[in-house]
Amino acid sequence: MTEIVRDSNSRKNQSEAAMAGGFSSGRFSVAPMLDWTDRHCRYFHRLMSRHAQLYTEMVTTGAILHGKGDYLAFSPEEHPLVLQLGGSDPAALARCAVLAEQRGYDEINLNVGCPSDRVQNGLFGACLMAEPQRVAAGVAAMKAEVAIPVTVKTRIGIDDQDSYDFLRTLVDALVEAGVDALIVHARKAWLKGLSPRENREIPPLDYDRVYRLKQDYPGLTIAINGGIKTLAEARSHLQWVDGVMLGREVYQNPYLLAQVDAELFGDLRSAPSRHQVIRELLPYIERELAAGTYLGNITRHTLGIFQGLPGARAWRRHLSENAHKRGAGVEVVEAAMARVPEPELDYS
């Protein structure tokens, strides 16, 4: 590590300065995950952390501008909230950024990291790393139209284009365009031959490269993503970079979020118990059911809330077997929760 970052105290001070300068929410964020971090998931996550920054799933510019649904819908409770965009046309990106700002989003993030074939065919995602000027043009177009931050989420490389100079070429272009922050998944992406899931697991992690990037661009806010599973690991990364992003671990073990405010933001207000979280979710469920939402579309995000506790399997089984049934309501959730013994104090 010493050959990359020689002064850990200096790096820590820079990270704390970035936090004080407006990146405090980005100090810890939940990654955008396609088919996972929808508005129901985000509302549920917000019940456990006041400060974690939440992201939408990636939404394409085409869906927003030409789709029939409302792809920008969210609940006010979700703030601070980032819209992640997929696209490469500067005019379309700028128009979507304006619409997002008008709807109240706190930040716009451009996806330059997704490696799926479908995304590549639409000319967005990780394949854009090979076209830094195109990415920079999109960032500049959005920056010219909105006052909220515009950020980019990227990988450290693609295919055999994985040198540090390749990454720096992209970063240089983004800095010139005025990007407000960079979130770096510390793996390269293989655009052919690996599935999106394999691309999250097989390419080796290279945290040092992200640390080096922060050292070389001390004025650029940089967050790190990839393979981080615990808040202890998150604190370790925060010695070198400005923010950490967790994805699958939070989704599979959502109660991890209940410790984020105290451990990473210094907010020592009492965290809700697991049972309290579900009780606080019930009014939202009732409201959504009245609007025509199926119960299972909400409860699928809650299956891991009791992970590691007696009764967790019974909770998951009851929801999995009953939430999809016609007419299923909050009584299904209450019956599932009754299968998990509730301790007097559950702040574990």
Automatic annotation (TrEMBL):
It catalyses: 5,6-dihydrouridine(20a) in tRNA + NAD(+) = uridine(20a) in tRNA + NADH + H(+); 5,6-dihydrouridine(20) in tRNA + NAD(+) = uridine(20) in tRNA + NADH + H(+); 5,6-dihydrouridine(20a) in tRNA + NADP(+) = uridine(20a) in tRNA + NADPH + H(+); 5,6-dihydrouridine(20) in tRNA + NADP(+) = uridine(20) in tRNA + NADPH + H(+). FMN binds at P32, M33, L34, Q84, K153, H185, N225, G226, G227, G247, R248. Its cofactor is FMN. The keyword Ubl conjugation does not apply. Keywords: Flavoprotein, FMN, NADP, Nucleotide-binding, Oxidoreductase, RNA-binding, tRNA processing, tRNA-binding. It comes from the Bacteria. Transmembrane segments: none annotated. Its EC number is 1.3.1.91. PROSITE patterns: UPF0034. One of its GO terms (molecular function) is FMN binding. The active site is at C114 (proton donor). The record marks N111, R200, R313, R316 as: Interacts with tRNA. InterPro entries: Aldolase_TIM, DUS-like_FMN-bd, DUS_fam, DusA, tRNA_hU_synthase_CS. It holds the Pfam family Dus. Residues 30-336 form the DUS-like FMN-binding domain. The keyword Lyase does not apply. Catalyzes the synthesis of 5,6-dihydrouridine (D), a modified base found in the D-loop of most tRNAs, via the reduction of the C5-C6 double bond in target uridines. Specifically modifies U20 and U20a in tRNAs. Belongs to the Dus family. DusA subfamily. This is tRNA-dihydrouridine(20/20a) synthase. It comes from Zobellella taiwanensis.
